[in-house]
Specification:
With 392 residues, the chain is of the alpha/beta class. The chain has 14 helices and 12 strands. The protein has 2 domains: 6-253, 3-Layer(aba) Sandwich (Aspartate Aminotransferase, domain 2); 259-390, Aspartate Aminotransferase, domain 1 (Alpha-Beta Complex), CATH 3.90.1150.10. Helices cover 41% and strands 15% of the residues. The structure holds pyridoxal-5'-phosphate (PLP).
């Protein structure tokens, strides 16, 4: 598979066929596996190969197919699938860290990621330094010779700030620290994250990889040594495994991932360009709009600008709520990466728990709305947005 294009890998990589030679991958909906003999059971517990299974919390053939397929897409040596994106973030960080360690993290983080680095890790004696992820000088100042890892989201939620992964990796690697990237917003299709210097990549597969709003899932990608000897022991003993059914949904989601992400990103760019300068908007935020604060970086780092755009509506929360309530096609929901376009008001939902000053510092104004662009026709979505803006 390694010399094929990623579109081909997304359809074929990792496939394991049963004795029936099925075309579509089978769901091995089983907790356990039968051994022919006591000796075989003993041998498998001592050292199981990638094709030998023990218990679904450790691994399962359908889950292994998903892991191998996404590893092939990302160009990673190995992957471990998890029950949710947060199980992946938790697994990657806690499996690597111990009391006394020092880490540096971007402060622009998904709410639950922020809870892990700001509240949970310090509770276990890990020293955490939060920096403005877009400021390489701040990373340089914060990283120390004893820094264990740097953590960041490549594109931040919901203000879509882009972090220079190569810049952070050069600083981190210079100090012997690893770089862990939560890459949900950039997607595995638009960004070669390992080539940019990331050591560990995390996805919530709940988002684009399912892409049709059905299942929770997550995945951790990295070297075989890291995945099998660091992440796996932590995850298999703490219970964050992906279910075989969810793995099957994610596996089938991968087959159409490239097509969906490209279609959604093309629509997002078209809508962002059309709305830019709209009299009812203070700002239209999209990484591939020329007035984006990190436009050059976003163009260099991401093949497309992603499937999410944010609008800062004039008139604060009142206007933003009127806009959400007037939308007919775009649904109010906090997920993203779905085939259905979804809109959320971060200040009162996903980022509600943050103090007002923190929200302000992150650029999450009361008028900001985040739109995850789906697979609908761009004219229908634009019509919905423009009509709703008229009454704000
Ligand atoms: C959604 C999301 C998560 C959490 O994923 P779940 O599957 O909901 O647990 C983590 N990081 C980012 C950037 C996300 O968008």
């Amino acid at each position: 598979m390694s010399d094929h294009h990623h579109q081909t890998k997304l359809v074929h990589a990792g496939t394991r066929r049963s004795q029936y030679n099925e075309v579509s991958e089978a769901i091995f909906l089983t907790q356990g596996f039968v051994y022919e003999t006591a000796e075989q059971a003993a041998a498998r517990f001592e050292n199981a190969s990638r094709e030998e299974f023990i218990y679904a919390r450790y691994g399962n053939p359908t889950v292994a197919m998903f892991e191998d397929r996404i590893a092939a897409l990302e160009g990673a040596q190995d992957a471990f699938a998890t029950a949710s994106g947060m199980a992946a973030v938790n697994g990657a960080l806690f499996s690597m860290l111990k009391a006394g360690d020092h880490i540096v993290s971007a402060k622009q983080l998904f709410g639950s990621c922020l809870y892990i680095v700001e509240t949970l890790l310090p509770r276990f004696g890990v020293e955490v330094e939060l920096v403005d992820g877009t400021d390489l000088e701040a990373w340089k100042k914060a990283v120390r010779p004893d820094t264990k890892l740097c953590f960041l989201e490549a594109v931040s939620n919901p203000t879509l700030e882009v972090i220079d992964i190569k810049g952070v990796a050069d600083i981190a690697h210079g100090a012997g620290a690893l770089v862990v990237v939560d890459n949900v917003f950039a997607t595995p299709v638009f960004q070669r994250t390992l080539d940019l210097g990331a050591d560990v990549i995390i996805y919530s597969t709940t988002k684009h990889i399912d892409g049709q709003g059905r299942c929770l899932g997550g995945v951790i990608l990295g070297t075989q040594d890291f995945v099998r000897n660091v992440a796996e022991p932590y995850l298999k003993h703490t219970g964050g495994a992906m279910s075989p059914f969810n793995a099957w949904v994610m596996l089938k989601g991968l087959e159409t991932l490239d097509l969906r992400c490209r279609a959604q990103a093309a629509t997002a760019l078209k809508i962002a360009k059309t709305l830019h300068g709209h009299p009812k908007l203070d700002r239209t935020i999209y990484p591939h709009l020329p007035d984006h604060a990190q436009f050059d970086l976003a163009k260099a780092q991401m093949e497309e600008g992603g499937t999410v755009l944010s609008l800062d509506i004039k008139g604060g929360q009142k206007a933003a709520f009127r806009f959400l309530n007037a939308l007919k096609l775009i649904l109010i929901s906090n997920n993203l990466g779905d085939a259905k376009s979804l809109v959320t008001h971060p200040a009162t939902t996903t980022h509600q728990r943050l103090p007002a000053e923190t929200r302000a510092a992150l650029g999450i104004t009361d008028g900001l709305v985040r739109i995850s662009i789906g697979l609908e026709h761009s004219d229908d979505l634009l019509g919905d947005i423009e009509t709703a803006l008229e009454i704000t």
